[in-house]
User: Fold this.
Amino acid sequence: MSLSALRSDAVDPVAIAAALRGQVESVVRGKPDSIRLALCALLAGEHLLVEDVPGTGKTMLARSLAAALGGSFRRVQCTPDLLPSDLVGTTVFDTARHEWSFRPGPVFANVVLVDELNRASPRTQAALLEPMEEASVSIDGVTHALPRPFLVIATQNPHGSAGTFALPESQLDRFGAALSMGVPDRASQRALLRGEGGSGALDDIVTVCTPPQLAATMTTIESIHLADVVLDYVLDLAEATRCHGAIVLGASPRAIDSLVRLARAHAVVGGRGYVSPDDVQAVFVASLSHRVVTIEGISITTASAALRELLDYVVVPTG
Assistant:
């Protein structure tokens, strides 16, 4: 489908997913799995958390996704002195009109990039709980609706890095998927050094959809067929997380709901109109690694290893 066709009223989720993927891959080189999982989170209407050391492309992934998605975009750089009002906005007295008025913060956008979220104080982190869960902001007893769709793409430095505040379980649970970028392969690094992709390619990204089209795509994905046998497989995996020796707090019902939404989106990214066990397996670790608690506490790395073990021994349906 051409880009002009994508901007029409018609919505083809498979075509939109393919177009988004192509635009992001023109910037982020050597990370097809990360791009695929990020697209699944966005198309499923889930917020995305990207964790890794600085310089591995976290912000580039978020910026390229936002540029390709269209709609309004805001970026917030988190620091320890960032205030909640710097995110959600505040009321100020208008001396000309002699009344109080609300000035919205950067969360009032379709796509919000919150860079290095765990550098913000716990109080400021908590300011995102209502926006991410309810798509609204309540200030001085008044609730303000956020634009639709509303997507948060947050990056964080690895737990324990200098100047960071660990995200609590309630904050992590607002994210539908978490992924780690890692260092790209040698060929991709060579391409970046030659000026192929990277920040230089951001200006060349073409917006491939509008906010209403993205919202319609998300609605369509909710109806992707999910057979009972695949649903039982999801429930078996969920139960296994509650029995694994290295996991002290397994998957919650909300986490499993996100897993199903991500699996449906993965099917669309793969060009299918139904969910297969492969779709569930492809998003399983990214969906739950930040939501289960291991004997070492909240550790995406440790949780990921335990979750991969479950994929090896939970019986996969074949019929």
In short: The longest helix spans residues 253-269.
